[in-house]
């Protein structure tokens, strides 16, 4: 079974501003004393993706 996910404008670029620690956390480095770094980075990323995706998928009148 071969299923492909199609994402409109999936090759478009987006820009997000992260601290070095946030980027490291998204890359998989663990900050055992401060889990908030990874949470903050994921929130920024999810917010940007949802804003970009919702903006792109709105019908134009």
Which terms would index this structure?
61 residues, mainly alpha, single chain, elongated
Please identify the structural class as seen in this structure.
mainly alpha
Question: Mean pLDDT across all residues, rounded?
Answer: 82
How much strand content do the residues show?
under 5%
Q: Mind telling me the C-alpha Rg?
A: 15 Å
Instruction: Give the helix level as a range of percent.
Output: 40-55%
- Counting DSSP E segments of at least 2 residues, the number of strands comes to 0
Question: Low-confidence runs (pLDDT<50, min 5 residues)?
Answer: none
Shape: elongated
Described by strand count, sense and barrel closure, the largest sheet is:
none
Count of DSSP H/I helices: 2
Distance between the termini: 39 Å
Task: Report the order of strands and helices.
Answer: HH
Q: Tell me which oligomeric state these chains represent.
A: single chain
């Amino acid at each position: 079974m071969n299923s492909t996910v199609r994402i409109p404008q999936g090759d478009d670029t987006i820009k997000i501003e992260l601290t070095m620690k946030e980027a490291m956390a998204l890359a998989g480095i663990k900050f055992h004393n401060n889990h908030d770094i990874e949470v903050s980075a994921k929130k920024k990323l999810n917010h940007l993706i949802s804003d970009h995706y919702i903006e792109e998928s709105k019908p134009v009148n």
